[in-house]
Each structure stands twice: as C-alpha cells, then as structure tokens.
Specification:
The complex is a heterodimer. By secondary structure, chain A is of the alpha+beta class. In chain A, 56% of the residues lie in helices and 16% in strands. In chain A, helix 8 runs antiparallel to helix 9 and helix 10 runs antiparallel to helix 11. Classes of the chains: A alpha+beta, B alpha/beta.
C-alpha cells in the first residue's frame, strides 16, 4: 500500500508536524488601519515601561498598565479598543472611568489560555489629543499573564479581526469539548456492544479523564468549587497511564501490570501531594502532573512508532498520526506553562481533538473491516451452502437410486422365492409326469401351476387390509377347481375381521396354507364338500377354517403339514388341525396385525 | 356394408361367433369346444387382427372371442370395430391370467366378459351363456382396479365423461373388491343374487362409454364413421 512506504510516511509526518506547528511560528493578521498601541507604562506589579506584547510578572497578583493614545479630534463614529490576545481578568479604565471588566464574561479556558476582547470606548469621555487607558490584570490560574499589543479604531477596522480570534479562542474550544463528548459516547456504545474489546474501554477512560481538564467551566457555571480545576487536572494525570496502554493495545501487545496500576497510582500520587500538605496544588501540577503528561505522550508516540515500523500494524499508523500533533502541543504547552516560551495560547485543547478524531477513525475502520469480513463470511457461507445443497441433492439422488435398487432387488428376490415355491415345483412334477405319459396328472399339475402363478401375480398388487380381495381371487380359482373335481364348495368370509400389516408375502402364505388344506382334503380324505369360513377368534384374532367331510385327520396323513405350520409361524399365527367325526378341520388363526415380513423371510424353500 | 335386416338376428337364430387366437393349439381347442355348442355357430377362427377385421366386415358377428396380444395388433382393435359396427354384439377376451390391466383395457374397448385360457369346455360354454343372458363376470382384483380408476378420474377436470355409477353399482363394486361373494353381496344389499352380474354388465358399459371418444377416434380411423 502507498502509505506503507517509508518516504511517503516521513513526508506525511513532516507535513503534519508543519501544519501542527503553524500556531507556533505564524501569526494571525493584524488591523492595518487602526491605531496601534505598542507600549505601556507600569503602574503596579512592575516597573518602568514595557513593550507590548508583554509577559506579566508571575509573582504579582495584580499588574497595572497605563497606555496612551492620541486622537486628532473627537471622532464622529464609535471608537473601539481591540485587545487581540491576553490572559487573566482585565479591568479597563478610560480617562479615569471604568469601562469594562472581562472577568464575568470570559470562559475559564479563555482566562487561562488566551482570550480576545473588543471594547467600546465611550465617546463622552474621549477627547481630542491624548487619552489614557488603565489596564489592570488580575491573575487567576497557573498560567503566566500575557498582554498583546492593542489597537484603537472603528468597528469597520477591528471587527473582523476580533471575530476571527473570538471564533478560534472561544467557539472552537467549545466545539472541541462537544466533539470529545460525542466521541466518548460513540466509544461507550461500541464498548457496550462489544465488551470483550478492551481497547474501547481504555479509549473511553482516556476521553472521560481528559474531559476533566474542562473542570474550570464547571466552576464558572456554578457547578463546582473553586479548587476543583486543580484537583481535576491532577486526576487528569491518569491519562498519562492510559495513553501508553491504548498504544500497546493497538499494537496488540501485552499491557504490563504496573502500567495498569499506574493509571490509578498517578492521579492518586498527584492528589496526595497537595492533600497531604507536601506541596501546594499548583506545584503538584507543575512539578508532577505536567512532566508526567509530557513523558507519557512522548512514550506513547514512541510505542505507536514501534507499532508502525517494527510491528507493521495499520492501526498504529493511525494512532501515530493522530498522536503527533497532540505530542507537539503537549510539549509546547508545558514549555508555555513553565514560562520557557512566550505562548499564552495552550494548544493541547485543540490538538487533543486530533487524537479524538484518530479514535473515531480507528473505530469506524474497525466497523468497516468487520462488515467487510461479515460480507466475505456471508458470501463464503452462501457458497458453501450451495455446495452442500448440491452435494446433498446428489447424495439424495444416489440414495434414492440405491433405495429403488434395493426395492427392486428385494422384490425380485421375493418373486423368485414365490415362483420357486409354487410354479417350479409344479413344472418339475409335470416333467416327471410327462416322462411317464400320465396325461390326466399332467393336466391337473399344470392347472395347479397356472393357478399358483395367478396367485403370485395377483398377490403382487395386494396392499394392506386387502386380504379379503386376495381371498376373493382365491375363491374364484377354488371354485373352478372344485367344480372340475365335483366337490361342493361353501364359502363365507364376510365375518372375517379386517387384518392389517398385509403384504404380498403374507397373502401368499395364507393362500398356500388354504390351498394345501383343500388339496389334502381332496387327495387324502376324499371329500365331497369343503367349507371355508372366516370368523373372529379369541383376542381379536382372525380365524380361517377349512372343513371337509372326508376322512378324519390322523397324524402323518398330510405331506405338507410341516410347511403349513412354518407358514403359519411366519404369519405370527397358529395352525390347528382337528379330526372331526367325519372329516378334518384346519383352523388358521392370525393376529389382527401381521408381523413385518422381510421379502426373503416369507417364502421358505419347501415346495408347496 | 351393414344392413338392418342382416344385423338383427332372430331370437332363435344361432349365435354367430368369431374366434381370434394366434396360438394354433389353443385356437383349435376353443374351436372344438365351440363347435359342440348347439346354440352357436363358429363363423371363423382367426390367427391375426387383419383376418379378424376382414371377417368382421364380411359377416355380422354376435359374439367375438379374442385374444389380446396378436401378431399384427391388439385384440381391443377388433373389439372396437365390432362395437362400432354392431353395438348390440358382445365381446369377450381370452387371457392367461385375466389380470387387471388386460381385462380393463378390453372392457374399455367394449368387452363385457373374459375367459381364462385354461378354461375347460364347461366353463367356456357357461361363460358364453351367462354373457348372452346379460351377466358379466368380475373378479375382486378387477373390481379393485375399477374402484381405483373411478377414484382417480373424479377430481380430474380433463375427463368430463368419467362414468357415473349409481350408488348401487358403486356398492357392488366395493363389495366385490373386498372379496364378498355374489350371494353375500346380494344379502348385504337386499337384492337378488342374479342381478349382481347384470349390474356388473352396466358398470362395464359405462366404462366403455367413458372411453367412447377413443372408440370414436378408432372407428373414424378405420373409416367406419363419417363426420
């Protein structure tokens, strides 16, 4: 990336530093056509004459100056005194008459860090020739007093210069407070919704602590006591600890425990000094809080620089850039407060906002990055979802194909078993009979084979609870058989309870048991009458009875008895064979719900 | 080709039978059985559809007994031709299994009876006589298929000619599908046992009627009907 090249970075840093140092070497334009006052005579708190701008004696509580200016005649238009920059409270007396006191109408920031004023000089006390103004400056804060050169002129000559300074010295400073409050709120919200992001918490602490430097405003609006600003400033020393922590967190480095303790220890020590009576609050500020602040800012700048050039962290670069003006202003202010340079206007008030804005950028960048990541993750997820859906669809299709194959396989197996049980046995006996040329037996065997084939084929279509239909088809075949054999058939199945769980295999098992019973009756007990009945049995069972009037049953009579019993067992039912006075009764009792039948479990391999 | 006087046989006139069966052994067997029936006269025993169509056009037929799968076509074509030329004539299909699909397609073509290929002489003659007396046979599996077919046809708007069965006919169809004998059914419904097969015949005719458009198409294709 373009910004990651060192020359570019250095150029950017130099440019920023140059811009930030602008107030230190450049000055605002001054009125050209107004009457300048560049010198003053000391009345109190100093001796002799001074050239303006002048720095006031720090030890004096009140400094009085007398300045003089000459008017050629009494002006027709209103005349003003414009003081571009001064600190402290100023009382102005014109020709022995007090005309203004800036104290009650200036905010604390102005009092300590520079203000401007435009005073109307009352026309009735102005005279042609020499006029005198007495300026009394009352010291209120830590800052050394300052008075710039002054101008006397009309509103047209002075107003624009006054308004520009009013904006910079008062309005802009209040905007800075508003910005800081706003950003603090934004960080707070970010932190509430993402508490695990420790950096947000420290940022918030930093913003809140640095708001303490506006405590003077609270005093002025009557919300706090006189001494609050100094203590607040000492509490504000906590910032010295928080700043490096923020930089370390941005660098994704570990925060040493002592540094975290320092966040509490620094303000505590700062408060202890004056409260414990060791030194006064001003000395505590100047000798403790201020140096600590300067050191902290410089160390933090170094940490950020380390993050930028050693650890190559983008966020550290943002922090570094936003910290640079603040570091410069802190050093500058420290020098100004200690009187080492002539600078009544404290710059930190302005440049701290660079850091605040840096926070906003970091926050917004993180939000943007998270959203971008979210988009990517979403796209990725959507892609994977599509892939998986396709995979699933393929899997489903192959699964369905497999299932269909399995069903076909099972059906084939079952059909094979069913045909094997019936048809193939008959065909084998037909072949055997044909070899011996037994035409009558061949015919009946072939008929049985065809009937069995019909049974198999009809059973294919039988669904659950359709045993009745299957029995109906069986009846048709049986009727033909009985008529050929001259056997009377009586059939009544209307009373048979409905049976569920019926499968083609079950149907074939039932029909083969019945067929076997009929065949036995015809073969072994030469019957003239066969009765088939369906009726309810005990415990909800459905019982099918085959009765004949042939020979009574004797053990070992039927060939297929073992097969019949096995089939009955597969149906979950019971087979009972009873000898009657004349004839035999076969009773098959089935449960009202037939057991599940596997296609290979239904057909045993015995010939029917 | 048809004339009124020839198409209306006298009540005592012998029943003119056309047999269509491609298997020579079976054809001969049926022909032999039919020749023993005094009330009938076997007009021809054909082996192909073409022969059958020629025979149908040549002479009025009262009863067509046909196999369905023929070397040059399908027995239903012969049945349609018969039903189009002589609506009062009867048709009967011969099938090895008398399975549902075969029989239903024959019924829709206009058949009112079916016969198993292994039917003996007694069965064959009985079946013909029952058919001529106005009764049609029906097996539970065929009844089941018809019930299902009617159930499917009901909601489909494409079949305006779905057969409308009377409640009685519906009851009979249901009963047979459940495996009841004619006697059980007659007792259950409080009707005479002999009327059951007559109802079955009516059901078959309605099935044919619902399929008439196809029959009409078939007839027009054969040049029997001019629009």
């Amino acid at each position: 990336m373009f910004l990651k090249r060192l020359p570019v970075q250095l150029a950017l840093i130099l440019l920023l530093a140059a811009l930030a140092s602008l107030p230190m070497w450049a000055s605002l334009p001054l009125p050209d056509h107004a009457l300048p006052i560049a010198g003053a005579r000391c009345e109190t708190g100093c001796v002799g004459t001074v050239e303006l701008p002048a720095r006031l004696d720090p030890s004096a509580r009140r400094v009085g100056y007398r300045v003089e200016f000459t008017l050629e005649d009494v002006p027709a238009r209103p005349v003003y005194l414009f003081v571009p920059l001064f600190t402290q409270r100023m009382v102005v007396t014109q020709n022995g008459r007090e005309i203004a006191d800036t104290g009650p109408r200036t905010l604390m920031t102005g009092v300590v860090a520079g203000q401007t004023t435009l005073l109307h000089l009352p026309a009735d006390s102005l005279r042609a020739g020499r006029n005198t103004l007495d300026l009394a400056l009352y010291r209120t804060g830590l800052m050394p007093g300052y008075l710039s050169e002054m101008y006397v002129g009309t509103s047209g000559q002075l107003t624009s210069h006054y308004l520009l300074r009013l904006f910079l010295l008062e309005h802009l400073r209040l905007m800075a407070v508003a910005t800081q409050l706003l950003v603090a709120l934004a960080v707070l919200v970010a932190w509430i919704y993402r508490p695990r992001e420790v950096l947000f918490g420290w940022m918030l602490l930093l913003l809140v602590l640095s708001l303490l430097s506006y405590a003077g405003l609270l005093v002025q609006v009557g919300l706090a006591g006189e001494r609050l600003p100094l203590y607040a400033f000492l509490l504000n020393a906590g910032v010295s600890g928080v700043l490096p922590i923020v930089a370390l967190l941005v660098n994704r480095s570990a925060v040493p425990r002592w540094l975290r303790l320092g966040v509490v220890a620094a303000p505590a020590a700062g408060l202890l000094l004056p409260l414990g009576g060791i030194v006064g609050p001003p000395a505590a500020v100047l000798g403790f809080a201020l140096p600590l602040m300067v050191a902290s800012v410089l160390v933090t700048l170094a940490v950020a620089a380390w993050g930028v050039w050693k650890r190559r962290i983008d966020e550290a670069w943002l922090l570094f850039l936003s910290l640079l003006p603040m570091a410069m202003s802190t050093v500058y202010d420290a020098l100004a407060v200690t009187g080492m340079i002539d600078g009544p206007v404290l710059l930190t008030v302005y440049y701290r906002q660079a850091l605040t804005l840096g926070f906003v950028v970091i926050l917004a960048r993180r939000l943007g990055l998270s959203l971008r990541q979210l988009d990517r993750a979403n796209a990725n997820l959507a892609l994977r979802l599509r892939e998986q859906e396709t995979e699933l669809a393929q899997l489903h299709a192959s699964e369905r194909e497999k299932a269909a194959q399995r069903v076909r396989g099972e059906e084939r197996q079952r059909l094979t078993a069913d045909l094997h049980d019936g048809l193939s046995g008959h065909l084998a006996s037909i072949i055997a009979l044909a070899e011996r040329e037994q035409a009558g037996a061949i015919e009946s065997s072939a008929r049985e084979a065809l009937d069995d084939l019909r049974a198999v084929i009809y059973s294919l279509d039988i669904g659950d609870r359709e045993l009745g239909a299957a029995l109906g088809s069986f009846r048709e075949r049986l009727q033909r058989q009985c008529r050929r054999l001259g056997v009377e058939l009586e059939w009544s199945m209307a009373a048979l309870p409905e049976i569920s769980g019926v499968t083609p295999t079950h149907v074939l098992n039932v029909l083969r048991i019945m067929q076997e019973a009929v065949t036995n009756a015809v073969r072994h007990g030469p019957a003239t009458r066969i009765v088939l009945r369906g009726q309810p049995g005990e415990g909800g069972q459905a019982c099918l009875t085959v009765e004949n009037d042939g020979a009574p049953f004797a053990p070992g009579m039927g060939f297929g008895l073992a097969n019949m019993r096995r089939r009955a067992a597969l149906l979950g039912g019971a087979l009972r064979i009873e000898a009657r006075e004349a004839g035999t009764r076969v009773v098959l009792c089935l449960p009202c719900r037939l057991p599940d039948s596997r296609p290979d479990g239904g057909g045993d391999r015995a010939p029917a | 080709m048809d004339s009124e006087d020839r198409s209306e046989p006298a009540p005592q006139a012998p029943c003119r039978i056309l047999l269509v069966e491609d298997d020579p052994v079976l054809r001969e067997r049926f022909a032999r059985i039919l020749s023993t029936w005094p009330e009938g006269r076997l007009v021809a025993a054909c082996a192909t559809l073409a022969e059958a169509q020629r025979a149908l056009r040549a002479e009025p037929i009262d009863l067509l007994i046909t196999d369905l799968r023929l070397p040059d076509g399908h027995g239903t074509q012969a049945i349609r031709l018969l039903r189009a030329t002589r609506p009062q004539a009867e048709a009967m299909v011969i099938s090895v299994l008398a399975d549902d699909q075969t029989v239903i397609s024959a019924i829709e073509a206009g058949a009112t009876g079916y016969l198993l290929k292994d039917a003996d002489s007694l069965e064959l003659i009985e079946a013909i006589e029952a058919l001529r007396a106005g009764s049609s046979p029906i097996s539970p599996s065929i009844a089941r298929v018809i019930v299902r077919k009617l159930g499917e046809a009901a909601p489909a708007p494409r079949q305006p000619e779905a057969p409308r069965l009377t409640p009685r006919e519906t009851d009979i169809l249901w009963g047979i599908a459940k495996g009841y004998t004619y006697s059980e059914l007659a007792e259950k419904l409080g009707i005479s046992r002999q009327t059951v097969p007559v109802h079955v015949r009516n059901i078959y005719r309605k099935l044919e009627a619902s399929n008439r458009s196809e029959a009409v198409y078939e007839a027009s294709r054969l040049g029997l009907i001019c629009f």
